[in-house]
Amino acid sequence: MILTLKLNNPLFSTIKKLGMFLIGLLFLAACGNNINKLADESLGEIKLNQEYGYVIDLDKLANGKSIETSVRVVINPINNGIKAGYQLTENADEAKNQVIISGKPMVKGNISVDVQWGIYGNMSYSPKLFKKRFIINVVERSEE
After folding, report:
1. Nearest CA among 112, 124, 115, 134 for reference residue 58
2. What is the pLDDT of residues 50-74, one digit of tens each?
3. Count of alpha carbons within 13 Å of 36, Cβ hemisphere only?
4. pLDDT for the residue numbered 30
5. From CA 113, how far away is CA 98, in angstroms rounded?
6. What is the sign of the dihedral through the CA atoms of 71, 76, 79 and 80?
7. How far apart are the C-alpha atoms of 12 and 7, rounded to whole Å?
8. What value, to the nearest 5°, has the Cα angle with vertex 126 and ends 125 and 131?
């Protein structure tokens, strides 16, 4: 006795529908939101009109090589005296993706530096996008 599976068999139709559903589910999972929001980080307290400088190494934060064109930096409030910019530094055989924060704050309160960047994927994992907020607390300068 030979068992044959006909194409119009209801069992074949059910298996075909289940297979299509699983493939569709796989595509949805692969195209999902791949943003990793890292915890906010305080960069400490500084005085009004005091010179400030801080360097953020994006490659260390994400455990991967940052994509140069994916880096975005936004400072709030605007016109506060602090500036931040992305810099790719290449020394010898090493390239560092850094955000450099510098300046003299002219406003009291919290200044936030929002950084977004992506890293390359490989055979084991897909590319990822990261977001992190750095907060600088500016206080009134005390008279000495």
Report:
1. 115
2. 999 999 988 888 777 777 788 899 9
3. 12
4. 59
5. 13
6. negative
7. 6
8. 110
End-to-end CA distance of the chain: 102
Tokens linked to 130: 């990261």
80: number of CA atoms within 13 Å, CB side? 24
Q: What does DSSP assign to residue 124?
A: S
Edge-to-edge order in the sheet of strand 94-103: 52-57, 94-103, 82-91
| pTM, full prediction | 0.69
Task: Give the model confidence (pLDDT) of 82-120 as tens digits.
Answer: 999 888 877 666 667 889 999 999 999 999 999 998 887
Contact between 48 and 141 under an 8 Å Cβ cutoff? The reply is yes
> Which DSSP helix (H) or strand (E) runs through 96?
strand 94-103
pLDDT of residue 137: 94
Helix (H) or strand (E) holding 59: helix 58-62
Q: What phi-psi label fits residue 62: left (phi over 0), alpha (psi between -120 and 50 degrees) or beta?
A: alpha
Q: Six-digit token pair at 54?
A: 């801080």
**Phi, psi at residue 27, to the nearest 5°?**
-65, -40
* E strand or H helix that includes residue 17: helix 10-30
